[in-house]
Amino acid sequence: MLTMSGANARQDSNSKVIESTFQPAFIMETSEKKNARRILHVDDDLGFLEVSKQILLMENNFEIDNVESVDDAFKKIEHQTYDAVVSDYEMPQKNGLEFLQKLREQNNQITFILFTGKGREDVAVKALNLGADSYINKNGSPETVYCELADAINKTLERKKSRELLAKSESKYHALVENSLQGISILLAAPLSIVFANGAFGKILGYSSQELTSLSPEGIMGLVYHEDRAVFFKRMEDRLRGEVAEACYEFRAVRKDGSLIWLSSLANRVDYDGQPAVQGMFLDVNESKIAAEILRESEQRYRELANCLPNIVFETDLNGQLVFANERAAEISGYSFNDIKKGLNILQFIVPEDREKATKSIQRLLSGGSYTPTEYTFVRKDGTTFPALVTAAPRISGNKITGLSGLVIDLTERKKAEDKILAASLYSRSLLEASLDPLVTISKEGKITDVNQATEDVTGCSREELIGSDFSTYFTESEQARTGYRKVFTEGLVKDYPLAIKHRSGRITNVLYNATIYRNPQGEIQGVFAAARDITERKKAEEALSRERNKLESVTAASGVGLVIVSKDYHVLWANNFIKRYKGETIGKLCYATLNSLDVPCQDCGVTKIYAGKTTLDSHEYCSTTVDGNPYWAEIVATPITDEKGNVTSAVEICVDITERKKNEEELKESIHKNELINEKLSVVGSLTRHDVGNKLMVMKSNMYLLKKQVGDNPKLAKYLEGIDSAIKQSDEMFEFSRYYEKIGVEKPSKTDVAQCFNQAAMLLPSLGTIKIVNDCQGLEVMADSLLKQLFYNFLDNSLKHGEKVTQIQLHFTKECGGVKLFYEDNGVGIPEANKPKLFHEGFSTGKSTGLGLFLIKKMVEAYGWSITEEGELGKGAKFVISVPTSVFENQHALENQSAN
């Protein structure tokens, strides 16, 4: 038989079809039902009420009364007691929310379930906030919908019954704990208060029960010794969150007379008057704790000292088995403390070839002999080795040798330091030789101490010839070279110092020298390090650039683009013929007065931004008049001109006439306004049509469900019914698509909390069941509208329909220089690579859907100015990446400022 058990309801097997002797509805309604649950169903569609009643009565112990309005429902409630109310939302005169609100205002806590169509998720959230017990979407297959509805009714009523039974057992509990010899109390967290304390607990602390339950939050905290409070109340918070913690816990309490007492606590989480609370049981362990504490402190001091040392500290028994090792031992060896506890011999840490030598040393020590520090090769758990120095001594207890204690010093770093000294010399030599520029080091006396191959090439002299010679002899101007060298010592460095190197063959190379002093480890100046950059090619490039500028003047003279070079004081240095035709002669004039007709420089123009430090291209538009007085619109893009040192010397403005574009934009705005009026009318008509047709589709689906029961296992008829059912489902989904599609771009975006939006979407899918939802978007706000919640709903619904093996869904984000990336991931079957290029196309489907869900998501994303891709792996899950560029935030911020002004 069909069992009403939520979203997992299913037919037992194909062989066990619903009983062929299908009972007519009127027989079901008039048959005697023992302990039946009375349900009041409210909906303005009589046909829907009747078919719903037939389905619910088939396999549930219900008695159902149907009414078509909220007013009729209240009349029924006056004369009849009901266990639960099932109500539609959209009804004439009063809707479902008004019905629920009035019931709660009358202090009527009857179980209330909102049974309404898909697309009313915002209504569902409001209903739950008003005190509704559940929300069921009545769109979908009748079998699933009515299984969920019946399951929600039964489970809600069972929970209510359980709460009543709990209240009856409360008095028995109080009698038991009051007579206990253990101290027992119950604490609430918000606000911190003791709501119950038995006599034994009061006696332990020197208070009466009434005094304990009257304590303020500060007084309660004062019951715990200040050094133990953080751990005590952290454990309390963990218990309240339902986290697993160690069963018993010992802490110091403060008695009424100020004395300290050690207590052992056993705590668990309970419900107290509907609030989470912690119940604790306490034993006095003061005497045993004091004795143990003395022993522990002595042992602790030794352990702390050992753990502070940077080396391995160990102790063994007579057989060489480790009985103690400090924390450093685990870090260096790779063995965990559990490994050591299980039993490790000290010889296991030494490579096999050194073990014989180590064994003899151990035997000599245990026999009372002397020991000198010895170097061994130690081996880690992963098989890697390191050099170590070991020193050890006998461990004495009761005048007997009971083992060894020792110290192991890791020599790895010392060995590395020795190797580094050698490597540093080779490395420095390699760096010098890797440079294409001539590099040279010079002593304080002006003698060359080292050179690279490039220096040999540019001078024609060998390294042996150069080292020890006077560096200035290799330049055309020796005195100028010496002047630059002295300047390094007085100023610390020189940059771009011009010199000319002469080759042995007579060839001259023009260079720019950069030099700095270098010191020894004691900070004493040892000499100068200098690097020369050959500028021969750059000089050629400068000459070529000059020729290109001449070409630019001739090319732009007849072009349709204006070019202007502007100085740092906003004067025109040069303009092409395009500018002259529009504005006449402008050279020497202020650019903002001639081009923009402004009295002062525009703060948004590219030139102003360039001289303020911005070097990226930027554009702005302005309206002005030609030299003949004709108005025109222009768009300007500015870019800086820099010298060889990177300093901005002037700016170039590129001007384009956009008068025709502006005219087209005005015409487009008018067209958009007309389209908005048409869309508004279509939206109203679509909304009314969807509600009425949606209800009729549900009636059709419900009658189809009943017809399937009558048809039984006739495969031919079942095939026809499946075809009709599929067409109804697709119609339903297309209506839903049209509802959201017409909303895209209608609402004005505003700051939207992403984490809250995702949580609300997840609440609307009770079929998520045990799937773990991980929401890591706390604090993230984006510019969006109410459709963002529907976007997340579509993602979640898609994972449920197509993920097949999904157990976790995660939403998280990263901040990048270009904006924010939002990641939606599940661990289902993933998406084949062949499907990814068509994934967001309208109508693309693998046969399990209409192909409109991801198409709608893409349209929503594009309306926000975002972009979306799918980057998951087949077999590992789907991964949708939404990129929210910084420009979306900046543009919206600018619009808000504009509105405010």
Could you explain how this protein is built, in words?
β31 (867-870) and β32 form a beta hairpin. The longest helix has 53 residues, at 659-711. It is flat and about 120 Å long. The chain has a 5-stranded parallel beta sheet with strand order 2-1-3-4-5, with helices on both faces. A 5-stranded antiparallel beta sheet has the order 7-6-10-9-8. It is of the alpha+beta class and 901 residues long. The protein is 43% helix and 25% strand. It contains 28 helices and 32 strands. The chain folds into 6 domains: 25-164, Response regulator (Rossmann fold, 3-Layer(aba) Sandwich); 180-291, 2-Layer Sandwich (Beta-Lactamase); 309-415, Beta-Lactamase (2-Layer Sandwich); 438-534, PAS domain (Beta-Lactamase), CATH 3.30.450; 540-657, Beta-Lactamase; 746-897, Heat Shock Protein 90.
SS field, number of helical segments? 28
CATH superfamily of the largest domain: Histidine kinase-like ATPase, C-terminal domain
CATH topology of the largest domain: Heat Shock Protein 90
Assess the beta-strand content as a share of residues: 25-35%
Number of strands: 32
Structural class: alpha+beta
> On the 0-100 scale, what is the average pLDDT?
81
Distance between the termini: 69 Å
Highest CATH level, the class of the largest domain:
Alpha Beta
| Relative helix content | 40-55%
Largest sheet entry: 5 strands, parallel
- Give start-end ranges of low-pLDDT stretches: 1-32
Instruction: Order the strands across the largest sheet as they lie in space.
Output: 2-1-3-4-5
Outline: flat
Write down the domain tally. 6
- From the 3D coordinates, which CATH architecture of the largest domain would you assign? 2-Layer Sandwich
